[in-house]
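Much of the work behind modern protein science is quiet bookkeeping, done one molecule at a time. The protein below has been through that process, and both of its lines are reproduced in full.


***
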Amino acid sequence: MKGVSLSINKASRQLVATVDPLLVEGLLQPKAIDALIQSSDYKNFFILADGIASLCTLSNAAKAANSLEEKTQVIGEMKDAKISINIATDQMYAEVTIESPFAGSVASYQDIMLLLDQEGVKKGVSKKRINNLIFQASEADSGITFTDIVARGLAARDGKASILKSLFPNAIDRILQPQDADNNKVDMRNLGDILCVSANTVVARRNAPSKGRVGYTVTGSPLKPNVGEWKEIKLGANTSISLDDENAIIATVTGQPKFENEIMNVDDTFQTKGVNVGTGNINYAGAVIVNGDVTESMQVIAKGDITINGFVESATIRSGGDIIITEGAMGKMNEEDCKLHAQGSVFVQHGQGLDIVTNKNLNVRKQLAYSRVKCGGTVTIGDPDKPMGSIFASTIQCGSTLYAGTVGAISGSALTIDFSEGVNVLNSRYEAVLTALKQLRENNFDHGVKLRELRSKHVPNALVNQLNKMDSVFESEKHLLNWLEGVETEMRQAKIDYEKNAKVVAYKEMFQGVSIKMNKRSWRSEKEYFKSVVSLVDGKWQYTPLLN
């Protein structure tokens, strides 16, 4: 710009403008000075608007007076990045704010650490976050503000309550976990000894509550956790607390230990080498272990687990717990003469012609064919970690996912997998909850209106107590309403989860003739599919290849 020059006073870190009034064309305007600065190497300076205005006034006055004297004015200055530190009221975090500099410099990591230390920030500092703030402020235009949390405290973690731990695995868990063989290999045929403990054996132990984790604030103040509480031991059948150790549970009878829902039971156990016409049927109030076969038309009924170290042929096995058959089970085709009914889970090595009812899960290690299954949980055909068994020519009512290696048969024999019953039960319960919830909401609203009307009127002293009782009942009704709304939310989520888990996974192949349904929604395989999963997507059955 003619008649105006810019320079830096390095000592004072200021931007100086010098004007020769007689060389300036016309009157000198602040906009012209601003434009000159923005087109120069000094555009990042902090501009002093008052200085520019003063320079223009002096220059224009000198020009009017035909003065030859140059006018000089400070119109800008260098400013280093501004840094501020804010520590949260609870001292659980500290944040740094950096305003990008005006032709100045940004503080180094060491400088910011020194400032944090001066403010009392001692712990939980993130070097990465500080350096990121420095980089942002260095690269940005002047005067841009950046804020980030650069230090965090560690909240104290309360200790966990005491927990009861079983010292012995449940029979079904043990049978699903093959035993180690030599050379670090797993022997799939060795399913482990069936466990039976003697009386006075310690079967479970209560572990002490943990002390928790000590936390700290960013200023280094320790935060003490609450120590976990001691939970009362709930004793199951045939157990007691040891007289020598209040944290040890002992068996009071010789039997089979079973740990469920944090309660240890020891089932009085009946053992036999086999069940046949010579031994007669078994109906026992505890657990039953059969170290042999169960032959045709025989019955084994027990309130506890039933473990059969042998083969079951056209027999009836009913258990109030789990059923474990270490070999196979077989019934006659199209006849319900081999029944395995369990309140718990069922494990069988392989099966054909079976009628299986289980409230929990079903695991068939190798193959299931020509059978009828009603399972409340997961059906797994094969090893639990990698199900590669086969299932075909059966009718399955399933309450969760069915996993197998091969689903269906190359012959196209019919296999039906039905998820209807579980969702119908959930729908029925959900509708009942909705009906009760609707009625309770209406009642609660009406009661609230009537109570407000009564409160707005003069109430005789003799009736004040009665009105207070009505308020108490109303509050109880509101608590019940809140509880029921929570139940409704949980059941709605249960329906979502059920449909999410209703699927068939074939880790090897799925043949033609497989039908999958949930009420009116159905899907049928019309050809052979390789690794695949059939699941509900947006309410419709959909086939998806498995990529691994």
Summary: The two ends are 71 Å apart (CA to CA). Residues 184-194 have pLDDT under 50 and may be disordered.
